[in-house]
TrEMBL record, chain A:
Coiled coil: none annotated. It comes from Alteromonas aestuariivivens. Residues 58-228 form the AttH domain. This is Carotenoid 1,2-hydratase. Signal peptide: none annotated. Gene3D superfamilies: AttH-like domain. Pfam families: CrtC (PF07143), Lipocalin_9 (PF17186).
Length: 353, 799
């Protein structure tokens, strides 16, 4: 479950009603049918690595905890979002797809963030299958193979002074969240998406900062998710975590905050051998411990996470202050460290605050 | 250092003066910054980048620029490029078939525009209502909710958004919404790729190397800047902000001089005790820096708080005057503080140099004889400043250089004033009869005071010069606009009809049609207006120089007259030919017969004979109407009811009044800031003379012992202050007029492409000067009233 701020805001932007309600009579999106997330249409790989333009929203999401030769830490995020804009389906200039890419790079002292927007069919943004690519302008994810995202090379230039190039290699299988990739986001199941991850990802490459090149490597986490219904009235936002534990296990946890009910919790624990354990309201505990003032918002940046049946009781602490992405849809996205019963590192996303 | 700090207890006013001046300067600058930032963000000010880009990639003529070219360049890393189509063909109202005249349409790839927090969602492809058009509020009123069609009868989205910074003749929309229905890239090729941010030399080279042969990178001329009221507002706001800072800078220098004067005795003692000159001067500098950084922090907070408090009022002004809104953006206090601290530290380090050097000379016993080198330094600096001001004035060809020439002129004026003031006072003293000892003492004391309050007088001089310059400029603009309106709006009534008036008017009513069209001259959109072959209309056009137009040739279509805006943009003059392409594709090339003034119009315009534009005229029907015996106003309205149903009749007087009211509202904000600057200068002067007044207490005691009453003494002291102000005002007058000339002929010329004559209304000038002196004297009454005759030996030292 990635970048819920974007989902929240763009669904608001498209004036959407609860996912299963028909649009109102005067809506500009009347008679515009989005494809539905259903159990009848199971997630299938490698076909579903591709874009799903009939769905309202989609994103390919990479986060990585990198380290250079001298132990300096870097936190990298590359995301390509796709939106279907129902008001622009008859243009001779572009199709009804909007592409938005975010790149964020942190070291201890600095943060670089940039956003690119582009329309579909113009030729400067999109996704291709042969080879598999994701691109916006000169930001390129190019796979060595057709139809599959890995192994690949990612190249990003943020400005003349910040460049990043890395090889992305997998070391395990893809993980389908929820019910074989059918991922429910609310207790009543109205909010749902197709969602899978590649948590066994290793990055190695170079970051060039102000003319100085850093050889970096570290674990990454790749998500691909698409949906047409992820929002309903009363949902306030989400807290999302991806963890690389030092024992080789991986863990994804998210909490959707609602107006009138308890937060909805869900997650996936993946053992080093790839065995998947689905986590739910009973098995997963996620508690904010400390808050930080970021961009005039009070955000929980220190958490306690417990998976009782697996003896996991860890503290999740932000890598640095103010890991805020100020884009069209602002949100918190940053690296975290894991300590307690297990140690490790990962990423945290906070939205809707 | 601690000793320096402790000395503040003895003369706290000097430190307080420095503190207050820096607080005012920094809060003023923070306010100007925040107001302009809020205004810039609300007006989609990335205009500067994409409505009027400095660079565009365009076809070199062989092959069209394509969407594939665009994608190729973006994928190569030139993400600052945004594709656009500038449609200059006719636009029609869907229901009536009539044409809003002179409008062009800019369709831009909004996805490629630089994103700013406040600009979203207005300029975003992610916006729910993406199919919409933006326009200037006046244009929006013209179009209202009518659907427009392009020349292929394909409809455009309904206009929904107005933005005051847009040019009045331009509609803006998203490129994806433009290319709908039958509008394709084949039919309407891309006009260019706008460079939406700065393009350094290295990027220019890289882009040129990458461009295929059919494309070229060029300085843009296709889309143009509106030269809007908003730009004018921001420019004047910044100018006043800088002015306030300069005034405060003088206050700080003045206060520093005073501070050192009062401390010299103690510092000499410390020097005699063996403390080094460097240590002492470093301590003073560090103290000033500490004081400056503390005061600038307070000023920053004050500036933020004041802006927050004033935000509703500013918004009200923006709504009333600029027809837009002001939004106070989220403030980053750390960023503001670092900027304020850096500016304060830089300015204080720079301005403390001279007083500290003077202090060092005093402490090393080189005090006597210092006056002559200081005068020489002043003369040298004044000559240098005068030469620089003259040179930059002659060479200024851009708004930035025009502003630099203004700054240099103000500083040069200050130098001249400082040099001449003592001589003028001495001259004045010669005319005072010997039998007036008190007057003699007053003038001698004024001379002494003028030497000791030089910098405070400088602050007053600059504020007054700026006040005179701005007042005369605004008044000149007002007079020019009024006379232009009087001359141009000559008919008693004007009619805007939805259809042509074909029915002949009854006896006593004469009707003159004014045709409108648009054309392209060297890639630039030009408004065309017909001028009837009637002496009343021809004499209404204020041609400069007068008498240059051969009206018979004008009536045959051989000649045309152009406005200043067009002449200045393309360096055209009478006798040049003016090739233009009309909307219907025909080319005309009349000879320029003269250049006319056209105040307030940001667009280029040509007046020509109707026959030249008949074939490509816009379906807009405007008429000038006269009526007289035997027709009455009732006859006119009755006839119009059936001859031009649905038309609007405008009363000339009401039009003129409305125009002048809008004019007055525009300058409300700058007028108030002008007064604030003057008040700040007055405050500085007051504190200076209050401190220096202590030095004359011995003389006052003597005069009182001679039988001069306290009231007379107070009046005498007030006269001294008044004399100083008067002389400063007399010297500010020519420099104020020079400043006004620079504002009109340099700043306005290069920023907005029109000028107007400087009109000096002596009554208004005197009013401005007397008001300024009056404000100063009112403020100075306070130190004058506090005078007493007690002798205080501690204050008799003279630096």
């Amino acid at each position: 479950m990635k970048n819920h701020a974007v989902i929240l805001l763009c669904l608001f932007m498209f004036s959407c009603k609860p996912a299963d309600s028909p649009p109102p009579e005067n809506s500009p999106i009347r008679s515009y049918d989005y494809a539905q997330v259903t159990l009848n249409r199971p997630l299938q790989l490698p076909q579903d690595h591709a874009a799903h333009p009939d769905y309202r929203l989609e994103w390919w999401y990479l986060t990585a905890n990198l380290e250079n030769e001298s132990g300096q830490l870097f936190a990298l995020q590359f995301t390509l979002f796709r939106f279907r804009n129902p008001t622009q389906r008859n243009s001779n200039w572009s199709d009804d797809q909007i592409w938005m890419a975010h790149v964020s790079l942190h070291n201890r002292d600095e943060h670089w963030f940039e956003q690119r927007l582009a329309r579909g069919a113009v030729g400067n943004a999109g996704q291709t299958q042969n080879p598999f690519t994701l691109f916006v302008d000169d930001w390129n994810w190019v796979s060595d193979l057709p139809e599959t995202p890995f192994p690949a090379t990612l190249t990003v230039t943020l400005s003349d002074s910040v460049k990043f190039r890395a090889r992305l290699i997998t070391q395990g299988n893809y993980i389908l969240h929820g019910n074989s990739g059918y991922s429910e986001k609310s207790a009543n199941g109205k909010l749902r998406s197709y969602y899978y991850s590649q948590p066994f990802l290793q990055l190695s490459g170079q970051i060039n900062l102000h003319g100085q090149t850093h050889q970096v490597n570290g674990p990454g986490w790749y998500d691909h998710e698409w949906t047409s219904h992820l929002m309903q009235a009363g949902a306030n936002g989400w807290d999302w975590f991806s963890l690389h534990l030092d024992n080789g296990a991986k863990l994804m946890a998210f909490r959707m905050r609602m107006d009138d009910t308890n937060a909805h919790l869900s997650g996936t624990l993946i053992t080093p051998d790839g065995t998947v354990l689905k986590l739910d309201q009973q098995s997963l505990q996620l508690t904010p411990k400390e808050f930080e003032q970021v961009n005039n918002k009070r955000l929980p940046t220190r958490w306690r996470l417990k998976v009782v049946e697996k003896d996991i009781d860890v503290e999740l602490v932000r890598f640095k202050k103010n890991q805020w992405n100020e884009g069209v849809y602002p949100y918190y996205e940053g690296a975290i460290s894991v300590s307690g019963s297990h140690s490790g590192q990962g990423f945290m996303e906070l939205t809707g605050y | 250092m601690l000793t320096c700090v402790a000395l503040n207890r003895k003369h706290p006013w000097t430190s307080i003066l420095v503190f207050v001046a820096i607080v005012i300067a920094s809060s003023g600058l923070v306010m100007v910054h925040l107001i302009n930032q809020g205004a810039s963000e609300q007006w989609p000010d990335n205009n500067a980048a994409w409505i009027a880009p400095k660079w565009t990639v365009e076809s070199s003529g062989k092959l069209p620029l394509t969407r594939e070219d665009y994608a190729h360049l973006r994928r190569a890393g030139f993400h600052e490029l945004a594709a656009f189509v500038h449609y200059t063909g006719p636009l029609y109202f869907e229901h009536t078939g009539s044409t809003p005249s002179g409008l062009s349409l800019l369709a831009v790839d909004t996805a490629a525009l630089p994103w700013k927090p406040a600009s979203f969602p207005v300029f975003s492809p992610l916006s729910e209502k993406s199919a919409r058009i933006w326009a200037h509020p006046q244009t929006a009123r013209l179009i209202e909710e009518q659907s427009l069609l392009t020349d292929d009868a394909a409809p455009l989205p309904v206009l929904e958004v107005s933005a005051a910074s847009l040019p009045k003749h331009m509609l803006v929309m998203d490129i994806a919404d433009f290319f709908t229905a039958s509008r394709t890239t084949e039919k309407y090729p891309l006009t260019g790729l706008a460079v939406t941010s700065s393009l350094p030399e290295s990027r220019q080279r890289a882009l040129r190397n990458l461009l295929p042969t059919h494309l070229q990178l060029k300085r843009s001329s296709t889309i143009e800047s509106g030269g809007t009221l908003g730009d004018s507002f921001k420019l004047s706001l910044w100018a006043l902000g800088v002015l306030m800072m300069v005034v405060c800078m003088f206050i700080v220098v003045n206060a520093l001089h005073l501070m050192l004067r009062f401390r010299l005795y103690t510092l000499l003692k410390l020097r005699q005790l063996g403390i080094g000159v460097t240590t002492l001067s470093t301590s003073v500098t560090l103290e000033m820096l500490f004081l400056g950084l503390t005061a600038s922090s307070v000023g920053m907070v004050l500036g933020i708080l004041l802006t927050q408090q004033l935000a509703p009022g500013i918004n009200q002004t923006f709504t009333n005057v600029l027809e837009t809104k002001f939004i106070l953006l989220p403030i980053n206090p750390w960023q503001l503080m670092s900027i304020t601290w850096a500016a304060t530290a830089l300015v204080i380090t720079a301005i403390t140099y001279v007083p500290i050097r003077q202090l060092q000379r005093n402490l090393t016993g080189r005090g006597p004889g210092r006056q002559r080198p200081a005068d020489r330094w002043l003369k040298g600096a004044t000559v240098l400043l005068c030469s620089s001001a003259l040179l930059t004035t002659i060479l200024a060809k851009s708004p930035a250089w025009a502003l630099i020439s203004i700054a240099l002129t103000l500083l040069a004026g200050t130098g001249v004033m400082l040099l001449f003031m003592p001589h003028l006072l001495k001259l004045c003293a010669q005319f005072i009869p010997a039998g007036w000892p008190l007057a003699h003492w007053s003038i001698a004391s004024t001379l002494q005071l003028s030497k000791q309050t030089r910098l405070a007088v400088c602050a007053f001089f600059i504020a007054l010069t700026a006040n005179i310059g701005m007042t005369v400029m605004v008044d000149s603009f007002r007079q020019a606009t009024d006379s232009w309106l009087q001359a141009r709006i000559i008919a008693p009534f004007y009619l805007a009809a939805p259809l042509p008036v074909t029915e002949p008017p009854p006896a006593g009513i004469s009707l003159f049609e004014r045709l409108q069209a648009s054309a392209i001259h060297r890639g630039h959109s030009v408004e065309l207006r017909s001028l009837p072959a009637d002496s009343r209309f021809q004499s209404s056009v204020q041609i400069e120089p007068d008498g240059g137009v051969d009206w018979p040739r004008f009536d045959t279509g051989e000649q045309a007259v152009i406005n200043q805006q067009l002449a200045f943009r393309f360096h055209l003059s009478a006798g040049d030919s003016l090739p233009m392409q009309l909307n219907d594709g025909t080319h005309i090339s009349p000879v320029i017969g003269g250049i006319y003034v056209d105040y307030g119009n940001p667009n280029s315009q040509v007046l020509l004979n109707a026959r030249l534009i008949e074939s490509s005229r816009d379906p807009v029907y405007r008429y000038a109407i006269w009526y007289g015996t035997p027709a009455t106003l009732n006859d006119l309205t009755e006839w119009l009811n059936h001859a031009a149903p649905g038309g609007e009749l405008f009363d000339s007087e009401a039009l003129r009044k409305l125009s002048m009211e809008e004019f007055e509202r525009t300058f409300v904000v700058t007028n108030h800031l002008n007064i604030i600057t003057l008040a700040v200068a007055g405050l500085s002067f007051m504190i200076s003379v209050a401190l220096l007044g202590q030095q004359t207490s011995a003389q006052l005691s003597l005069l009182r012992s001679l039988g001069v009453s306290t009231l007379k003494l107070r009046l005498s002291v007030l006269i001294q202050y008044g004399t100083l102000c008067l002389f400063a005002a007399l010297m500010a007058m020519p420099f104020g007029l020079l400043l006004c000339w620079l504002l009109i002929n340099k700043v306005n010329r290069y920023a907005f492409h029109w000028i107007y004559p400087v009109s000096v209304d002596s009554a208004l000038l005197m009013q401005a000067i007397l008001t300024s002196i009056g404000i100063m004297l009112m403020v100075l009454c306070i130190p004058a009233a506090r005078l007493n005759g007690r002798l205080d030996l501690r204050n008799t030292r003279v630096l």
